[in-house]
Structure formats: C-alpha cells, structure tokens
Amino acid sequence: MEPRIQYAKTADGVSIAFYAMGEGMPLVGFTGPPFCHLQMQWQIPEWRRWNEQLAEKRMVIGYDSRGTGLSDRDATDFSLDAQILDLEAVVDRLGLQQLALYASIHAGPMAIAYAARHPERISHLILWCTYARGSDYLQSPQIGAIRGLLTQDWQLYTETVSHVFLGWPEGKPARQFAAFLRESVTQEAAQAAFSVLREVDVSPLLAQVGAQTLVLHRRQVMFPAVDIARRLASGIPDARLALLEGSSAAAFLGDTEAVLRAIDEFLGEGEEPAHAAEAPEAGAFRTVLFTDVAGSTSMMHRLGDEKGRAVLRQHERITREALKAHGGAEVKSLGDGFMASFSSATRALECAIAMQRAFAEHNESAEEPMRVRVGLNAGEPIAEDEDLFGTAVILAARIAAKADGGEILASDVVRQLVAGKSFLFSDRGDVALRGFEDPVRLYEVRWREDA
C-alpha cells in the first residue's frame, strides 16, 4: 500500500510533499535534488521493496525537495540553505525531536550541513555514495561528458544516467527509470540544480558533525569514487566507513541485503521513537485530546463482536500511529476511544487533523466506515498513577461528546494557544456542557483539504 502524501510549508513559503510510514525510530531518507518523485518511486518494484524493508523496523520518512516531484514546482532555488529549509519543514511538521538521517548522492552535503547546525536532533547520520565538495564529484571527465548532454538532449541524458550511473540494465528497465527521472523535474530545473553543485563545499563542517556517522559506499561505483568516500569518513569524528561490493550508486539495486544489514547494524536494536511520548508531570500545562467512535455501541450490535472489534482495532491503529508521529502521550484506552495529552497545543491539533484525514482515507475503501469524534482542551490537569484528572480533563471529554463523527472541536483556550498558526477555526458559539454551570465557547477545527 502506498503511503499517504502530506505537505509541509517551509519558512520561505514552499510546499514540500512528504510521507511517513512504519513505527519506531524516525529515519528521514533523501536522495537530493533534482531527481525526486515520491509517488513514482512506488511504481518501481525495486525501490518500493527497499522502502518497505527499511520501514519494517522503524518509521521511514521521505520527501520531495522544492522544484521536484510532488512539491512546489515553481520554486527553483536549489541552494544548500534552501534544501535545509525543506528538511526543517518536514521535521518540524512531524514534531520530531531526534531522528536518524539517510542521505544519498547529491543529498550528502545538505545532510552534513544540517547535522552540523542541529547536533541535538541527529542521532545517526548515514551517508550513501556521496561527497562533501561538489567539485570532487564533478572532476571526473565522464561526469563532464554526461552533463554536456543535459543541455543538448534531455531524453538521452536521462537514459545515460539511468544506465551508466545507476546501473540499470539496458533496454526497457533503463528506459522506464529514465522516464522517472524526466517526470521528477523539468530539464530547466535540473540544469539549475546542477549549476550550483560546483560551489557546494561543506568540508569545513565535517569536524562539527557530532552524530554517529556511517559512510557507505560500493567499491565499483565510479562517481563518486571510493577515495572520496574515504576522505569523507576521515573528516568526520569517529565516523565508520563500510565498503560494499557492487557498481550501482542506487542502494535499492544490486546487493540491497548487504546495504540493509549495514544500516540495521548501525542503527542498532531496540530503536526508540524520535520523541518518546512525554509522561505527564504534576501541575504541568497540557493539551488533552479525546477520541470516540460515534455509534460504536449500535455498530457492535449490528456487526457482532468479532467484526465490530476489527473496526475498533483500525481506530486504535490509526490513533496510535498519529500519537506516535506527533509526540502525544497515550493516557488510556477507553474501549471505543482514547485519552491522550500533549505538551504542545500545536502538536495536539496537528495530531487531531492527521487522525481525521487518516480515518477519512481508511473510510474510502472500508466496508464499515468509522466516524470519529475528537475533542481538545488545555489546562493544568492533576497527574496521578499515570493518569490525568481534573476540570481540564473533564471539559475535554465533554467537548469530544459534543462533536459529530468526523469533527474536531476545541475550547477557546486551545484556539488562543495556537493563534497565528495556520489552523482554521469555525465558531460554534457558547454550548452548555453537562456538569458545567456556564456555557463554554467551542470552535470547530477545519481539517479537510478544501477547508
């Protein structure tokens, strides 16, 4: 099943397409401009299997850089700073506090710069067939000859890259991958991306990389050559160099099992999520979220215990995946609902929206659609025995009960906490809630794409 494409907005206003799949330690993987296209990757069986295998043990996050794939094609700034803005947008959108970063080929310099700038966020850095200086990569006469085709014959250029550089066999497979390259980016944008390559030089930043680093390379890869990988590893403190057999610069071709083993060994066993759910602290200000499957009792009667429970398991899966991705702490399961808490109102709302979009996507193909209510409130609940109590919690539950299936309702406190953010609210007015003497102002959170 293809992952769901979402979007993040960069600090300079560019929309970046990304996906997140799997559970566990987040591993952000990026091939670098100009050849990125998340959707078309999944139409290439070898690349699809590679992504699925990576996601068996961890959460894998991929994205298209600006000007490529499903991201904003009007953005043509491929500078290192612009590439870092793309990565920062995805990391911030998912609320990741710590992650592993996998960068291949032209993404390497950006990953090195990001790791040097954000040492607190990168736990592991994996560099695949890449370099620190663009001039090192471009020094090969063969690369110069291939690049000459870029301005002369776009189709011949992509077919040459597919066959010579990545090692696809001649014939139909090479032509299909060449078509992927052409769909990823326009010829003009590819020229713009490569025009800045010669000026890229992050070698002064190598000594500042504090993350555990693995430099992976295949011995028979011609561009970049093995000696570039050796220099790269020697410049990063305590970096490990692993040389594998093979001639393709694409990790998903050739002996992929050797590459996956090296990555698994490096990342280690017992990987933890990037930002483990925070345990509630006494007196801490929290945003409390409740979910509830509308009509669950009648559904159980209608479907029977076994089929009804299967529907609720889907609710549990989707909810827990969203909580994990957005740093939510699952306080308790309520049978047909959940109670969770967040240290950030922004993350809580992003999580609620991600949940509803995931439920809507599930319903498109489900025999038994789910309509889930979500309610949020913020305050200082009482933390006791790994549970939360108090007025703030009761109000969040009452708000969820007022929502219709597929709706997100929030208190005015939550709305004020995220003022200035990109959330859309619809005023539902003052509502009488059971157990509260005065009416409470409620707001519907607009989560659909056309809101």
Summarize the structure.
By secondary structure, the chain is an alpha/beta fold.
Strand-helix topology:
Elements: E1 6-9, E2 15-21, E3 26-30, H1 38-41, H2 45-54, E4 59-63, H3 80-94, E5 99-104, H4 108-117, E6 122-128, H5 134-138, H6 141-152, H7 154-165, H8 172-184, H9 187-195, E7 212-218, H10 226-235, E8 240-244, H11 256-267, E9 286-293, H12 296-303, H13 305-326, E10 329-333, E11 337-342, H14 345-365, E12 372-379, E13 382-384, E14 387-389, H15 391-402, E15 408-411, H16 412-417, E16 424-431, E17 440-446
Parallel strand pairs: 3-4, 3-5, 5-6, 6-7, 7-8, 12-15
Antiparallel strand pairs: 1-2, 2-4, 9-11, 9-12, 10-11, 13-14, 15-17, 16-17
Helix pairs in contact: 3-4, 6-7, 7-8, 12-13, 13-14
The level 1 CATH classification of the largest domain is Alpha Beta
What is the average of the pLDDT values? 88
What would the principal axes of the Cα set say about the shape? elongated
End-to-end C-alpha gap: 27 Å
Our Rg estimate from Cα atoms comes to 24 Å
CATH homologous group name of the largest domain: Alpha/Beta hydrolase fold, catalytic domain
- What helical percentage do the residues reach? 40-55%
Which percent range describes the beta-strand content?
A: 15-25%
- CATH architecture call of the largest domain: 3-Layer(aba) Sandwich
**What count of helical segments does DSSP give?**
16
Tell me the total number of β-strands.
17
Low-confidence stretches: 269-280
**Assembly of the depicted chains:** single chain
Outline the biggest β-sheet.
Answer: 8 strands, mixed
Number of domains: 2
Q: Output the CATH topology of the largest domain.
A: Rossmann fold
Q: Widest sheet: strand order?
A: 1-2-4-3-5-6-7-8
Structural class: alpha/beta
